[in-house]
């Protein structure tokens, strides 16, 4: 899996210093607030076909006061990289919303990979196609992954 995909989750990206998010009125905030479970990570595979990677299990939380946390557990793997340590990805931090752009900026304060992500920020695009789903994508044109979450 490309490192950039994990960052959302991921980084979610992988974990999203929230000051702006809680300063907005509740009616202005998109409905990302709540608890989400991972549906699917989409990565480009060979010949731009979707990758057939085993899907991790995961949870993402966005709070009203601008905090976020994400955890992913990859099946039967000892995968380790910038985002994952021995098959487990976990980050926490804060987020700022840019609702007019459908973007959020995730500020990582803690990570299972420690110094590799702590202190970093990632700008991510989000779509809410319905009241139960959220799709997160990178804002970089050269990255082509997406993560679909479903509200608990």
UniProtKB/TrEMBL annotation:
Q: Which Pfam families match?
A: Lipocalin_5
The residue ranges of the Lipocalin-like domain are: 33-151
* UniProtKB keywords: Signal
Classify the source by domain of life. Bacteria
Q: Does the keyword Signal apply?
A: yes
Is this entry keyworded Signal?
A: yes
Region forming the signal peptide:
1-23
InterPro entries cross-referenced by the UniProt entry? Lipocalin-like (IPR024311)
Protein's name in the database? Lipocalin-like domain-containing protein
Origin organism of this chain? Silvibacterium dinghuense
